[in-house]
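pls ignore typos typing on phone
uridine-5'-diphosphate + seq
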Amino acid sequence: MIEEVKIQEKKLADYRKLMPENLKLELKRLAEKLKGKKIVHINTTSREGGGGVAEILHGIVPLMRDLGINASWYTIEPPLKFFEITNKIHNGLQGKGKKLTKAEKDYYLAQSKKLSKHVEKLGAHVYFIHDPQPLALTYFSKKIDPSILRIHIDISNPLQDTWKFLLPYVSDHEKVIVSIHEFINKDLPKKKVVVFPPAIDPLDAKNMPMKKEYARMILENMGINPSKPVIAQVSRLDPFKDPIGVIKAFYIAKKTVPNLQLILLAQNLADDNPYSKKIFEEVKKHTKGDPDIHLFYDPKKMEYENDIIVNAVQIASDIIIQKSTKEGFGLTVTEAMWKGSAVIAGRVGGIKIQIRDGYNGYLVSTINHCASKIVELIKDKKLRHTFGRHAKKSVTENFLLPRLLRDHLKTANEVLK
Ligand code: UDP
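k done
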């Protein structure tokens, strides 16, 4: 019912050029008390396309080991029905969807109880529980303690029925980590809440330096002309990512920039979401067969691996768009800013702590606003470079893996008994 995830080795020393001296010292200090201690991370998936949590764990678990901590990562493997229910919980926590039925609540708790019997055997000194699916486990075993719950979504305004049901299980954790202040739920005691944002791994294939000429060649092989203006959104096809709004903004901007091209990179990596196929058809309809709109959905049809394509698109496009209308953190924004790209993104969620409007990117709220900023930036190469330079600096200082490692170690130190 639980499975250990195989971890590729990583060395903190490889990140030294990206870390200020005080961060290096702090990591050393924080690791001291945790040396030899067993830290277990629990979540639901480890595979590529499994979302930000899997990417983050592939980053921080090996670095914890490198610091002498006995860190490991397990995924829970309950029946599929469990995930259908936790999907509803995920939506409910964000104030969407329907109430859970009594049967669903009972099933969720019964499975959590079963899973807890497996997890308690791990005998860790600290448990990190990631996201809502495994959050109730700790309640059913005194041995899964101390535990820290890491929630990536906005839980400030949940469906009341779902929240009331979950509150005892959420409260069972020693600490609850959210990404930004806005996501804090006021029912949780202040001293329980910890706030820190996610981060990207600068040494991941997706974020490694890539020559611009090589990135442009990849775009060319994908049927895009890199010598004409290119804008791109790299995102799942989810209504909150507003792909149709992006297309509408593109059409408005194209009236002023006739040779403008749009890339919508939305590879369906998880391949288990029938809903996304439906949105794909709808988005495709809006492209009206325009040869300047390049929508990529099926990874099997691509010549290059996902990470390479994401990297190339974020490097070679003139502007990266992330026109979300709701967003947790927005790793695509971080990734593009890290590459020194000019970003235009929705003024929502975690994007607001990444972009300082008019300094290292633009924040927009409407389609027209987005279109006017596209035109402005396409015409102003110098401003694009200035934004890119500022963007890279702010990601280097705030949103790279070693800082995220520090925040986890700090929280682990606080709960260690
Ligand atoms: N992504 C990808 N291939 C795609 C589209 C997106 O690998 O074709 C990645 C993207 O690079 C980012 C992640 O999916 O790392 C999306 O994270 P984000 O926080 O932006 O949004 P989420 O999908 O978690 O809501």
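Residues 51-52, 206, 234-236, 265-267, 306, 310, 328-332, 335 surround uridine-5'-diphosphate (CB under 6 Å). The first strand starts at residue 2 and ends at 4. more later
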